[in-house]
Amino acid sequence: MMPIIPVTLTFGGALLLGLSFGSGPCNIACLPYLGPVLMANGDRKGFAWRTLLPFSTGRLVGYALLGLVAGAAGLYVQEWIAAPWVRWLLGGATVVAGVAILLRRYTGGMTCSKPDSHPQEGVAVSISGPTKPLLPGSLFLMGMGMALNPCAPLTTVILAAATTASALAGFSLGLGFGIGAIVIPTLVFAFGVAHFTNQIRERLKQWRGALELSSVAFLMFMGVATAMNWMAP
Length: 233
Fold this sequence. Notes:
- It is built from nine helices and no strands.
- By secondary structure, it is mainly alpha-helical.
């Protein structure tokens, strides 16, 4: 283990570092994972925010957890996040998200009529209950998996947190970086990517079913490819 080189970073510095990271490569890295989810269900009212909130919360928790562990355990956290389980987490959660969208497609929209004294009237009964928590949960884990993937700005935060030798201080640095890292991507996806995917769905409405299934297939492929490390440089 190499000795810890002292690095001083304040909460504000970590926040600015997160903002600079989130305004560039982060958006590109998130696109293959969030894009298919928005494409598959983008026209549902409020779906963009119901997708982004659990995903961004997972990222924020992941960054804060990394800072906390780095502050308590030092640079050993770098070996911890370099282990294969990180890509298994992200890949597995991505596959589960694809399965959840598929289940919602074939169960969420189905209704049945309950006969009563007025035969012409029916009571719509949703049968999608068991699948409801599946997608938000998998999106949360996807966000955590994205946060645990090492990158140069995150390495700086980990190093600074390890220098503090304090779990609380490390947590503060990770939280600051996380807030900065998720703000811009969340806005870009909520108002930019979600609008773009809705426009595609509207213009290709006659092929909407095929478009949704293609998005699910791509999402599940991304999950398997991430877990198997096929996209490693």
